[in-house]
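FAQ: What does the model actually see?

It sees only this:
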Amino acid sequence: MQRIRGLSVVGVLALGACLHTDEPTRREIGYISVNAPSVSQSQVTAQALFFKDPGGLQFPNSRFAPDSCEARAFIPGSTALVPVGVQYISAGDSVGMQTDSATGFLKAATAGDGTTSYVLPNGGSLPLTPGAPVTFTIPGAPDGFPAATIAGKTAEPYELGPIDTLPGTDTALVVTWSPAGDDSSAIVLSLQYATSGASDLNEQIFCALRDDGLDTIPGPIANGWRKSAGLRHVDSYRWRSTLGAGQTELLGLVAQYNVSKSTLP
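And it is asked to produce this:
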């Protein structure tokens, strides 16, 4: 799944890091991500991973996302979708993907870090109207992931409002976006900035938010953003999760729509 400028990702599988379902322990896990890159938001990429349950696995759930912000270091790079060291399994020859206007097939590929996933051939993408549903059909494999189908609504487009670069000392920083989402989606926001003497972005205000169109970042958290006289950049995405379960498997789908902003306010 393509990542945006090293933005930390809420919608990833983790051991003890995200809200979990109340499903019993499963033997096989399937995780599918759909991403609308900011450079071409009518096209989406997809990645599907299937592996044995390592135990203690928790799925991201956009209906129960946190609503908080914190100041922390900004480290460019990507975030692994699944925990390191899982045992990958086959889900069949290919995974079918159906959008509102196209059909494609994800094929198994192994990355340099050992991650085995199903992706569209040649790093490809498929057309999709943001917010439209997408369906994945998994043929299944003996001693691997069983046959299954999952369908979910993708994330709708939105725009960020103006962001003040000079809020008063200890004054709250108001961030808006529109249109607001619903109780099935959530927002991740990263206000990145360079501290005094830094030549590149090195700190951020990181927020995981309810998708209600408005957040007020407390003044003490926003002070680093206010004091910065160097580079600034904002990354964000709306995400929505869909979960499904069978007799032995747990299958999840996370879709995200990315928005970046360099012109401030």
